[in-house]
Amino acid sequence: MNKTIYLDNAATTKMSKTAIDAMTPYFDKIYGNPSSLHSIGQTAAEALYDARQRIAKCINASPNEITFTSGGSEADNQAIISAAKNGEKKGKKHIISTKIEHHAVLHTLKKLEKEGFEVTLLDVGEYGIVKPEQVKDAIRADTCLVTVMFANNEIGTIQPVKEIGEICRAAGVIFHTDAVQAAGHLHIDVAAQNIDMLSISAHKLHGPKGTGVLYAKKGVRLWNIIEGGAQERGKRAGTENIPAITGMAAALEEACANMDENAKKMTAMRDRLISKLSEIPHSVLNGDAENRLPGNVNFCFEGIEGESLLLLLDDKGVCASSGSACTSGSLDPSHVLLAIGRPHEIAHGSLRLSLCEENTDEEIEYTIKAVGDVVSYLRNMSPVWRDLISGKKEFITK
Amino acid sequence: MALYSEKVMDHFRNPRNVGVIEDADGVGEVGNAKCGDIMKIYLKIENDIIVDVKFETFGCGSAIASSSMATELIKGKPVSEALTLTNKAVAEALDGLPAYKMHCSVLAEEAIKKALQDYYEKNGIEYDHSLFPDCEDCEHCCEV
């Protein structure tokens, strides 16, 4: 197969034609600033209004509960900092989260810790799912925020968001969820799922990069991260990225309209990958087999290192990702893999394949063979593998 | 810009001297699976000349390329010359490594030194202990 097989859709996606077409007029035709009073500006303002309505509808929110940001990271930052400041005013300085959050959440929490907040990071067990009772048990009188991601970016586990939201609602604690991997792929209904704040990124759902959404339920005060203008009801300064926002609205609508059909297609490919890659000896699936994003596959292969696996797969045309330390530029492998109990030794040998609805069965079969070939090739030159098969060291995986 | 030089990619894709020497005269293993890098070097030495060398590596692209290049640099050389191989020479021969990957070249240098030390020990040859780093802990390599 002489082409590229893109299996890194959790990193970013190809933009859909619908999204590109929706954006194009806003570069050189309707290029006005929505804050301008002349007609070209006001036409842009209408596009912004329209996009806000459509995005709100996709998650069952009101348009005035939608704030446009530069992406998921900014939305996570602003949500957490706002909830923390609101809590601080009432003397509440305790925050609950999990060990497998994205760094946009974890690093923001670290910063708040330095400012005197106390943070409880919940364990997620070997399958990477937090139990609602854990949240219930961790809530204190001074808890101001619970932030638990909707679905994990590395291992794809889907968290019991609705149940956690219910617990938070009953306790009067704000509940934020980072839905960057979930939006456009899983059904989101902020009302039914008891969500107070939620983050979305457009480029994970075939929209453009550099734009996202922070949903904040009416009554939850937002604090600015970026000052300097009255845009977004004064909560986020900066001229709105109209092309990106219109592209995001089109992409999200399209993804939501085709969600079930896409999920069915991806789930079949995902399960085929999981079943065949499980046949590679001494491999282990990371995350839960059932409560899992339709497009996520994540394995550890004992005796090899992830970066070399990625480079060789790339040579074969397969674009993938890994949680190895070498790909992160740090000494430690993925915090998510460590949190589900994978020892360093095998966490370095991880592979994430994240699908989209455009992948084909033919691509999946090719990938299964490519992964098998590369894993054997690398194991054949690995002194760790030699020690394992000779019995000098004990296998960690089956 | 690509992550690695063409030379690194060449040695990564087509590593030279991969394998095991069953009756090796010296074997050196450095690194730690916990850090994600282990290198093992096997030497065959005749009349003070490295007549054969093989390696096995568990690690990233630059670790494999560094091992491959290091074996090429010492093959056919006298033991005394192999002892002077530095990590810089390995990295330079590869047309450079990204700064945070320099520790891979350090591992290659240390694996060769360890194999040479093993050769001295096995054959009861007197040697200057100060030439060989104590490589029990790989963390310091990773910090280079």
Give a quick summary of the entry.
The complex is a heterodimer of chains A (398) and B (144). Chain A has 398 residues and is α/β, with parallel strands linked by helices. Helix content of chain A is 41%, strand content 13%.
Q: What are the SSEs and their pairings?
A:
The complex is a heterodimer of chains A (about 400) and B (about 140).
Chain A: E1 5-6, H1 17-23, H2 25-28, H3 39-58, E2 66-69, H4 72-89, E3 94-98, H5 103-114, E4 118-122, H6 132-138, E5 143-147, H7 161-171, E6 174-178, E7 197-201, E8 212-216, H8 242-257, H9 259-277, E9 283-285, E10 296-301, H10 306-315, E11 318-319, H11 325-328, H12 335-339, H13 344-347, E12 350-354, H14 361-380, H15 383-389
Parallel strand pairs in A: 1-11, 3-4, 3-5, 5-6, 6-7
Antiparallel strand pairs in A: 2-8, 7-8, 9-10, 10-12
Helix pairs in contact in A: 1-8, 3-8, 4-5, 6-7, 9-14, 10-14
Chain B: H1 6-13, E1 26-32, E2 37-46, E3 49-58, H2 61-74, H3 79-82, H4 87-93, H5 102-122, H6 139-142
Antiparallel strand pairs in B: 1-2, 2-3
Helix pairs in contact in B: 1-2, 2-5, 4-5
Q: Which labels suit this protein?
A:
heterodimer, A: 398 residues, alpha/beta, Aspartate Aminotransferase, domain 2, Aspartate Aminotransferase, domain 1, 2 domains, B: 144 residues, alpha+beta, Sufe protein. Chain: A, 40% helix, globular
Can you walk me through this structure?
The complex is a heterodimer of chains A (about 400) and B (about 140). Helix content of chain A is about 40%, strand content about 15%. Chain A contains 15 helices and twelve strands. In chain A, the strands form three sheets. Chain A has a seven-stranded mixed sheet, sandwiched between helices. The longest helix of chain A has 20 residues, at about 40-60. The model of chain A has no long low-confidence stretch (mean pLDDT about 95). Chain B starts with 5 loop residues before the first helix and ends with a helix. Helix content of chain B is about 40%, strand content about 20%. Chain B has helices at about 5-15, 60-75, 80, 85-95, 100-120, 140, and strands at about 25-30, 35-45, 50-60. Chains A and B meet through helix 10 and helix 15 of A and helix 1, strand 2, strand 3 and helix 2 of B.
